[in-house]
Design brief:
By secondary structure, this protein is α+β, with helices and mostly antiparallel strands. Helix content is 22%, strand content 13%. Strands 7-6-5-8 form a four-stranded mixed β-sheet. The longest helix is centred in the first third of the chain and has 27 residues.
Length: 286
């Protein structure tokens, strides 16, 4: 009887020990950590990027793929630039609306009823402003304590210290920029595409063409220097538009020009000189 009782107690103790071990194993089992949420980048219209002083590649020796002749970007050359700031993003409808309310500025196309307001609606607040003339763009920048960039500054900020063909490198990549190939056919919100230069400046290749401060002139050494197109008083536009086909055939050196009071899907971004203290802190491109 005692032996049977001892046997029963032993079996009970053994069962308890097994249960305890099982609980320890369960407690010790590693728990899967929750996946970290990918942070949404903050887009701040009007934010600026500091471009360091240095020597930059401008233009190109490539021939037009259709006409087989040198382009208005010929020849490739280098320029030395002082440090400067440039807007990280194109100027948006929201920014231009705030400027117009604050200053009561009347755009050049107001008399014709053709202004940026025609293409504005609340859901397009972060879309680049278009149908602004050169003067409309310059007045906006001046009100911000800025100015339009020179075309050399624009190209340097877009191509980086290595003179890339596209903001992301020398090889075309689908869905990187808002040109015709992307399928939108209209400007979209700033920062929507991974169209980012080595300095971190966005939408330099596609979305909208942008006014610069320069009068359209040939580069020294261009064989078409005496042609009529350089005598029209045009202002230089840089970058591509959402409607541009075969954008992969060209590069960031591409130059366009139009009368300064011309109204089309042209936008802008602003720039300003860097102080000596700011210039000293400018980090080189990665």
């Amino acid at each position: 009887m005692i032996k049977k009782t001892n046997l029963a107690l032993a079996l009970i103790l053994f069962g308890l020990l097994l249960g305890a071990c099982g609980k320890k194993e369960e407690e010790a089992a590693p728990q899967a950590e929750p996946e970290a949420a990918v942070p949404t980048p903050t887009i701040t219209p009007g934010e600026m990027v500091l471009i360091p002083a240095g020597e930059y590649i401008i233009g190109s020796n490539e021939k037009d793929p259709v006409e087989k002749q040198v382009t208005n970007a010929y020849p490739e050359h280098k320029v030395k630039l002082n440090a400067f700031w440039i807007d990280k993003y194109e100027v948006t409808n929201k920014e231009y609306l705030e400027f117009s309310i604050k200053t009561s500025y009347q755009p050049e196309g107001a008399a014709e009823g053709k202004t940026w307001r025609t293409f504005f609606s609340p859901e397009k607040a972060l879309v680049p402003v278009v149908y602004v003339t050169w003067k409309d763009s310059e007045e906006f920048c001046k009100a911000q304590g800025k100015r339009l960039p020179t075309e050399d500054e624009w190209e340097a900020a877009a191509r980086g210290p290595n003179g890339f063909r596209f903001p992301w490198g020398n090889d075309w990549a689908d869905n990187k920029t808002n040109t015709y190939e992307a399928g939108f056919g209209v400007p979209v919100d700033i920062g929507k595409f991974d169209d980012v230069s080595p300095f971190g400046v966005h939408d330099m290749f596609g979305n909208v063409q942008e006014w610069t401060t320069n009068v359209y002139k040939p580069y020294p050494g261009n064989p078409k220097a005496g042609t009529r197109e350089y005598m029209m008083g045009f202002k230089v536009l840089r970058g591509m538009a959402s409607r541009f086909r075969n954008a992969k055939m060209t590069g960031l050196w591409s130059r366009a020009a139009q009368y300064p009071n011309w109204l089309a899907d042209f936008g802008c971004r602003c720039a300003k000189d860097a102080t000596p203290e700011e210039a000293a802190k400018a980090a080189p491109a990665k």
